[in-house]
Design goal:
The chain is of the alpha/beta class and 303 residues long. The protein has 13 helices and 9 strands. It folds into 2 domains: 3-153, 3-Layer(aba) Sandwich (Mannitol-specific EII, Chain A); 174-295, CBS-domain (Roll). α1 (21-35) crosses α2 and α4 (125-132) runs antiparallel to α5 (137-146). The two termini are 24 Å apart.
Length: 303
């Protein structure tokens, strides 16, 4: 199915700015109700949208928000789009493209594939520029139709992974690793060489382990230890040791074409929330976390 087949030019907005998220959603609901036969409309439908917004965040880091409402008795999937010159603040995430989706309660698979298609577009800077500069809904639909963007039958890790990845080099010092982890609020970073080849992962646990003497690691219980002195070794070594000396080299990774269930299985089986995604040439293609899976995919099936 082509994404363009789900679009109605009359339900697409291009705005300099939105007065508020609430006002924008109200306008988008009104547009859909005017152009489609909905089982419910007006205040009732708008309130469903706002209730959904409070249940689970709908904003993505690529600048798109995709609120989704499953409507009882509605046997279709329709959406309205709004492109904003001035982004709206979604709890700290700037959103310049809002896609409001209404579907029936049995179309979770279609919705998830639709989200994947929209997310892929939101990562394409050139296409997003063209869509924002489009003159009206008809031209917007034409751009999307021309690209022949399809709603895939199956979603893979490549559809939801983060491609703008913060990485670290094996010859970087631990002080740089510590600083990067702290600034980015990450718990783990992929380690790559100059060509982007994946070499391993360096986590906050790898870093903290430097500060714990080996003899302490041999003990079963450290509840007797109250002094902070053993961890001072970390500060002594952070400008001496390199990432390559402490990183995990034998890491389980995911392929870009791995399925979502496969990724979830690996996360649960291995108790691992962060996976590097590595292509067939051994190069880092992206990363995916358990939170990414929940926020970007599973949130779509919550009523």
């Amino acid at each position: 199915m082509l994404l363009a087949s789900l679009l109605n030019p009359k339900t697409i907005l291009h705005l300099p700015k939105a007065e508020s998220k609430e006002k924008l959603y109200r306008d988008m609901v009104d547009l859909i109700c005017r152009k489609h036969q909905m089982p419910i409309c007006g205040d009732e439908l708008y309130e469903m949208v706002m209730e959904r917004e409070t249940q689970m965040p709908t904003a993505y880091r690529t600048g798109i928000a995709i609120p989704h409402i499953r409507v009882e008795g509605f046997k279709d999937t329709v959406l309205s789009m709004a492109f904003l010159e001035e982004p709206l603040d979604y709890n700290g995430t700037p959103i310049a493209w809002v896609c409001l989706v209404f579907s029936d309660k049995s179309s979770s698979n279609l919705y998830l594939n639709l989200v994947a298609a929209l997310l892929k577009i939101s990562k394409d800077e050139d296409m997003m520029k063209a869509l924002h500069e489009a003159h009206g809904g008809a031209q917007t639909v034409h751009i999307i139709k021309k690209e022949e963007i399809r709603i895939k039958q199956d979603i893979t890790i490549s559809d939801i992974m983060i491609t703008d990845v913060v990485t670290i080099k094996p010859d970087d010092l631990l002080s740089q690793l510590s600083e990067t982890l702290g600034k980015r609020s990450h718990s783990c970073l992929p380690v790559v060489d100059e060509s982007g080849k994946f070499l391993g992962e360096a986590s906050i646990l790898n870093l903290l382990k430097v500060g714990v003497p080996e003899y302490l690691m041999m003990l079963d219980n450290l509840s007797f230890l109250r002094a902070y002195e053993p961890l001072e070794k970390l500060f002594e070594m952070e400008d001496k040791l390199t990432v390559g000396e402490i990183m995990d080299k034998d890491c389980i990774t995911l392929r870009p074409d791995a399925s979502i269930p496969e990724a979830v299985f690996e996360m649960i089986q291995r108790g691992k929330r962060f996976f590097s995604v590595v292509d067939s040439d051994g190069k880092l293609a992206g990363v995916v976390t358990a939170m990414d899976v929940m926020m970007q995919i599973f949130m779509g099936v919550i009523k």
